[in-house]
Amino acid sequence: MKLFLRRTIIYIGLFLLYLNLSPIEKSGVNLSEILLRQTTRRIKDALVQIIRDNKEPLDYTKLFGTSQIIVVGETPGLRRSILDETIRELSFFKENLEFTHLGLEMFPSDRQYLLEVFFKKNDLREADEFAQQFILPVIKEYWGGDVEMYMELIKTAKRVGMKGIVALGPPNLTSEESNAWIAKQTQKILEENQANKILIYVDYRKIEGNQVPRVLKNLLGGEKLITSLRYVSGTNPCPICAGYTPIETAIFRAGLGSEKFMLDLRRIKNISFPLPQVDGIINLPSIP
To answer: What is the rounded CA–CA span in Å between residue 215 and residue 104?
Structure first.
């Protein structure tokens, strides 16, 4: 019944669009293409308005709330901006929001022992030298890009007093198996101490369709609050780039590309537009 009503509404909407067409548009032109163009244009305009009406100043305390797990989807084209933002805010995450661990899919799980040795070193200079000699080559081999920024993130986590970093780079598993594996490693951190809180950084594809967050919720049975997050940039949208979402073009069209702000999608109700399936979106001006 719901499907019938939905289709009926769509057909009525298309008919009304048809009535609004000029005689020239109605004659000699593929009507379905015109209707599609006009419908698409109206959806895009509506998405721009949704952003203007719902954007808020970036407030991590408000966005994260009491969540013990934050799952961030990292986009290749925005990696430098995301890392820069995380490094800058890590002290705040630790001191004000009481996050104790970082989880990085960008570091292979079979080298977890290197991160543990690094965090046990009391002398920061000795720790930095160890990281440069043993951790940097692993990131370079396993993940590739922006190695120095990942190194700075790992060093910053130690400097601000986090308990440790969890290597979430899964063994050779299928996509679904790797999601479950990441969730299991996260569960272990929470089982060590009920007060532990973890920020998880994974490839954006692992939160598309709510993948890792969904598996975590199923595994933990709703006992822990989980927030999923995507960073985007409307500064210079690139529809052919990996991780692109239409909301970036909408932000650009709204003239907000250079503004840092957040959208709490949990507060936006009854919207069927192409928004990422996450709890929150943060727009960051992109770093070249």
So the answer is: 17
